[in-house]
Specification:
single chain, mainly alpha, two-stranded antiparallel ribbon
Length: 554
C-alpha cells in the first residue's frame, strides 16, 4: 500500500523557495501570515461581539491564534498516536507528508483573514449588497440619500451570482490581495499545501456536493481564483468524486484542512462559551448543574427537559435539544466518510444520549452554579473545565486511511461532534438569538450599506478621471491599488480566472463589476472601528474629523 507523495514545497506562483535549514516551508508560510498587515487587522475585527465591548471578548485575531494552536497540537497528537498505536493501516506511508503541524498552524492563522468588519453580520450584509445590486433594487440604494449608485456596464446579476463569502475572501487575500514583494497580485505566495489546508470548502459557489444543501452556503474560491482550485486538484490535495453524470457527489479535502476545521469548531465552541460566561450572559453553572442532577436512567433524546428545577434553564435545554436533533438530520453525510457523521441511520438516539452523558461527565470539572465572580478560584474552575472539554474533543479525533482513494483522512467520534454542537447551541440561545446582539448587528450592517454605497460613488468618480487621464488621489491608496492592478483605467470588468485551465472555466465564471469587487476588497481590509468611522464620515456625521489622520492610506 503506497500513496502518492505530494510536493509540499511548490508555491502558488510556481517554483520552490530556496530551503533554509532552520525553517521548513510550513514555517515560512506561518511567518508570512504573521507579518502581514491583513493578519494584524484581525485584532480589530469582531468574533461575535466587537472586541472593544467590555474588554473581555475574543476578537478575530485571538480566535485565529487559538485555532492555530489547537490545530498544530491536534496534528502532533494525531501523528504520535498513529505511530504509537500500530501502523498496519499506514504501511509504506510517511504520515508527515500528510499531516504537518506547521501547515496546520498556518491554516489556522489564515482561515479567517478575509472576514469583513463586524464578523458574520458583516458577511451577511455584503452578500445582500451584491444580491440587491444584481436586482438593481433602487429602494435599497436610496437607503442613504447622499449616495446614488450608478451601476457599470457589466451584468450585475452575475455579480449577485459571485456573491461574497468569508472563506473565499480569505483565499483571495493570501493569494492575491496581500501586499508583499514587488509582484502584482502575488499575495503571500504560500505553498500549495498551505493553500489546501486553508480551503475548508474546496469548491466555487455552486460546486458543493449534490444533496448537501447546507454546504451550498459555503465556498472557498471565487471565479477569479478558480485556477488555484484547479492547481490543488491537479496536485492531488483536493479530490472531487463525481457520479456517472458528472455531478460532484463528494469532495475529499486535504486532511490538514479537516484538522484545522475541527480545531475551529473546538475553539468556537469553547472560547465563545468562556467569553459569555465571564460576561455573565450565559448561566453555564446552572445548565451543567441541571444536567448533573437528572436521574442516571434518563432518555435524553425523548426528554421534554421539564424537570421543574429551573424553568428558564429547562427552556434553554429544549432549544438546545431541538438544535442538536436538527443538526443530526442535516448531517447525513460528511465530506469523506458518512459513517463518521452524526445522523447515520439507526444511531441518532444512541449518539444523542451518549453526548449528554459525556456532558454530564465533563460537568464534574465545573463546581460553580453561580455567575462568574472574577476571583482566582472562578478563573481556575473555568480554565479546568475548558481544558477538559478541549482535551476530550481533541482526543475524539483520529487518522484513518482509505484504501480506495489512497488518502489519509480525519475520523471524528460522532458523539464528540454533538458535544461540540451542544456548546455552540448554548452560545446561540443566550447570545446569538438575543435582542442586544440583533440591534447591534442591524447598526453594523447599516454602516456597511452606507460605506459600500459611498465608496462606490467615490470610486466611480475616480475611474472617470482616470479615463480622462486626470490625476486624482481622492481614493484610499489601497483601493486605488486594487483597481489599477486588476484592470486598466476605465475598464468595466476584471478577468475571471487568472490562468484558466479550460474554456469551461471562462464560460462558467460570472462576470464582475470592477468597482464593486474592488470596494468589497477594500472594505474587508478595514477593522470594525475603521469601517464605522469611515461610514460616519461618508454620511457627514459631525462628530468625525474631516481631514485629520492618515489611516486611510496605511
Amino acid at each position: 500500500m503506497k500513496s502518492s507523495v505530494r510536493n509540499s514545497a511548490e508555491r502558488l506562483q510556481g517554483g520552490e523557495r530556496h530551503q533554509e535549514k532552520w525553517r521548513t516551508n510550513g514555517q515560512v508560510d506561518v511567518d508570512r501570515i504573521l507579518y502581514s498587515p491583513e493578519f494584524r487587522r484581525l485584532s480589530g475585527v469582531t468574533q461575535v461581539v466587537p472586541p472593544e465591548e467590555e474588554f473581555h471578548y475574543h476578537d478575530r485575531l485571538s480566535h485565529s491564534i487559538k485555532v492555530a494552536q489547537v490545530s498544530a497540537t491536534l496534528a502532533r497528537m494525531l501523528v504520535y498516536r498513529a505511530n504509537e498505536g500500530g501502523r498496519e493501516c499506514f504501511a509504506e506511508i510517511n504520515l508527515e507528508e500528510w499531516v504537518d503541524p506547521d501547515h496546520c498552524y498556518a491554516a489556522g492563522l489564515a482561515h479567517d483573514i478575509g472576514h469583513p468588519p463586524f464578523g458574520h453580520a458583516g458577511e451577511a450584509a455584503l452578500q445582500q449588497i451584491l444580491e440587491l445590486m444584481g436586482e438593481k433594487d433602487e429602494q435599497f440604494w436610496d437607503l442613504d440619500s447622499q449616495a446614488a449608485i450608478e451601476l457599470t456596464n457589466s451584468d450585475s446579476s452575475r455579480l449577485a451570482e459571485r456573491s461574497f463569502e468569508g472563506n473565499a475572501q480569505s483565499t483571495r487575500v493570501v493569494s492575491k490581495l496581500s501586499f508583499r514583494g514587488d509582484g502584482l497580485n502575488a499575495g503571500l505566495n504560500l505553498t500549495l499545501r498551505t493553500m489546501a489546508a486553508i480551503a475548508k470548502y474546496p469548491w466555487a459557489k455552486g460546486g458543493h456536493p449534490v444533496g448537501q444543501n447546507k454546504l451550498a452556503q459555503k465556498w472557498s474560491f471565487y471565479p477569479e481564483e478558480v485556477g488555484i482550485l484547479d492547481k490543488l486538484v491537479r496536485a492531488g490535495f483536493v479530490q472531487p468524486v463525481t457520479d456517472k453524470n458528472g455531478a460532484v457527489i463528494r469532495v475529499h479535502r486535504w486532511v490538514e484542512a479537516e484538522i484545522m476545521d475541527w480545531a475551529d469548531d473546538i475553539s468556537y465552541a469553547v472560547h465563545d462559551l468562556d467569553d459569555f460566561y465571564r460576561a455573565r450572559l450565559i448561566p453555564l453553572g446552572q445548565i451543567l448543574l441541571e444536567i448533573q442532577r437528572t436521574r442516571p436512567t434518563i432518555n435524553w433524546f425523548e426528554s421534554s427537559f421539564d424537570f421543574g428545577h429551573d424553568a428558564d434553564i429547562g427552556e434553554a435545554l429544549q432549544y438546545i435539544s431541538a438544535k442538536l436533533k436538527s443538526f443530526q438530520e442535516r448531517s447525513q453525510a460528511s465530506f469523506n466518510d458518512p459513517a463518521q457523521t452524526p445522523g447515520r441511520a439507526g444511531g441518532r438516539m444512541e449518539e444523542f444520549n451518549a453526548a449528554f452523558e459525556q456532558i454530564r461527565s465533563l460537568a464534574q470539572e465545573f463546581t460553580r452554579s453561580s455567575d462568574f465572580s472574577g476571583t482566582h478560584e472562578a478563573h481556575a474552575d473555568l480554565r479546568r473545565f475548558s481544558s477538559a472539554v478541549i482535551k476530550y474533543l481533541s482526543e475524539a479525533a483520529s487518522l484513518g486511511f482509505d484504501a480506495e482513494t489512497q488518502r489519509v483522512q480525519l475520523r471524528l467520534d460522532p458523539t464528540a461532534v454533538l458535544v461540540a454542537e451542544f456548546f455552540k447551541a448554548i452560545n446561540s440561545y443566550f447570545v446569538i438569538e438575543s435582542i442586544n446582539l440583533a440591534a447591534m448587528q442591524y447598526g453594523q450592517q447599516f454602516n456597511l450599506y452606507s460605506l459600500f454605497s459611498g465608496l462606490h460613488d467615490l470610486t466611480a468618480e475616480w475611474m472617470e478621471k482616470q479615463a480622462e487621464n486626470k490625476k486624482s488621489n481622492r481614493l484610499p491608496a489601497r483601493l486605488r491599488s486594487y483597481l489599477t492592478t486588476q484592470a486598466a483605467p476605465g475598464q468595466a470588468t476584471i478577468p475571471v480566472a487568472e490562468n484558466p485551465t479550460s474554456t469551461e472555466d471562462v464560460a462558467d465564471a460570472p462576470g464582475e463589476d470592477l468597482i464593486a469587487i474592488a470596494v468589497l476588497d477594500y472594505i474587508t481590509s478595514l477593522r470594525d472601528a475603521q469601517a464605522a468611522h469611515l461610514a460616519a464620515q461618508l454620511r457627514g456625521a459631525r462628530e468625525t474629523p474631516t481631514v485629520a489622520g492618515n489611516w486611510l492610506n496605511t
